[in-house]
Design goal:
Bound molecules: 1,6-di-O-phosphono-alpha-D-fructofuranose
Strand content: 15-25%
CATH class of the largest domain: Alpha Beta
Number of helices: 7
Strand order of the largest sheet: 4-3-5-6-7-8-9-10
Number of domains: 2
Largest sheet: 8 strands, mixed
Order of helices and strands: HHEEHEEEEEEEEEHEHEEHEEEH
Structural class: alpha+beta
Radius of gyration: 19 Å
Distance between the termini: 53 Å
């Protein structure tokens, strides 16, 4: 079978859907190139002296790893001369970064390196990105231009830097996986139209926060842990990679449910995960694969953002599990 490269797939797919927004195609192609360069930096790791702390904090007040800053710079520089892109925003930057002299109509918002706490132990990390359209009359350097509901995304995806480097993307008609061929340095289509089963026996949550959760989540997790003797009448398995990209990729590939719910530690900030460059892109991918994405009380993709770095509680994955959690939130909170 002939290998289908990411570029060829993009061109054929966008044409097949009646339009070829050249700016969108370029935004995605150059983002893929940036992810290839980030992957090469990660692969050299200790040999390139890029591990460890950068000695600075980001807008979240979190200590930055050297590779957080390097990955952010790679994405900025890759797109710096792109007339196709109006502006960029990042977990690592307080404010948007408008592209000079650009007439582009698209916005790119990203978490350049998700799962940073995994870098120094050679565990999976990723890049998460979301593409929005610049609203008519909006200024590319304004926060407001980016404050759009997840349902408005033009594209969403991530790169997962694991045993292999994979690019996962949706344009609104299914979820597609491309694997980087180290020899050719092309991303090759390897999976099409991923589907998440409506039921699962595998959950992902950071159990160390258990005492801080709301009653609905306490009940839900207690029932899973009770296994076949409990109300769910079957045993469940747990995974937690501490990199959302890896946990969500597992769910897209074999099912499951992921929770980073509201807890009393993070309630004042609205949650742990960020809406624009974590929950929205990952949530749209999950929804495109037949899963659901919720705060426990509402569909995350319907939230009208009020801030560039806004946080939300995140529950996503198997339809019947997310529906059960939403029911528990209605009944108990
Ligand atoms: P870092 O990028 O700071 O490692 O955070 C990763 C993350 O935002 C998300 O990818 C994980 O699911 C979650 O945080 C892990 O949080 P805990 O470290 O509290 O388990």
């Amino acid at each position: 079978m002939t290998d289908i490269t990411f570029s060829a797939w993009l061109r054929d797919t966008l044409q097949g859907h009646g339009e070829l927004p050249r700016d969108l195609l370029n935004t995605l192609e150059y983002t893929a190139r940036a992810c290839q360069e980030i992957s090469a930096n990660l692969a050299r790791g200790a040999l390139a002296g890029v591990l460890g702390q950068a000695g600075s904090d980001n807008v979240q007040g979190e200590a930055q790893k050297k590779l957080d800053v390097i990955a952010n710079d790679i994405l900025l520089q890759t797109h710096a001369n792109g007339s196709y892109l109006a502006s960029m925003a990042s977990e690592e930057m307080d404010d948007p970064w408008p592209v000079e002299n650009s007439i582009g109509r698209y916005l790119l918002v990203f978490d350049p390196l998700d799962g940073s706490s995994n870098i120094d132990i050679n565990a999976p990390v990723g890049t998460i990105f979301s593409v929005l359209t610049l609203p008519e009359g909006a200024s590319p350097d304004s926060h407001d231009a980016f404050l759009q509901a997840g349902s408005c995304q033009a594209a969403a995806g991530y790169a997962l830097y694991g045993a292999s480097t994979q690019l996962v993307l949706t344009l609104g008609f299914g979820v597609y996986v491309f694997t980087l061929d180290p020899r050719s340095q092309h991303f090759i289509l390897t999976q099409s139209k991923l589907t998440i089963p409506t039921d699962t026996s595998e959950f992902a949550i950071n159990m160390s926060n258990q005492r801080f959760w709301e009653p609905a989540v306490q009940r839900y997790i207690d029932e899973l842990l009770a296994g076949r003797e409990g109300p769910r009448e079957r045993d469940f398995n747990m995974r937690w990679v501490a990199a959302m990209v890896a946990d969500v990729h597992r769910i897209l590939c074999r099912g499951g449910v992921f929770l980073y719910p509201l807890d009393s530690k993070t309630a004042a900030k609205g949650g742990k995960l960020r809406l624009l460059y974590e929950a929205n892109p990952m949530g749209w991918l999950v929804q495109q694969a037949g899963g659901l994405v919720s705060t426990g009380r509402e569909n995350i993709l319907s939230i009208e953002p009020t801030g560039l770095h806004q946080r939300v509680p995140v529950i996503l994955g198997a339809k019947h599990e997310v529906e059960r959690l939403e029911r528990y939130h209605r009944e108990m909170n």
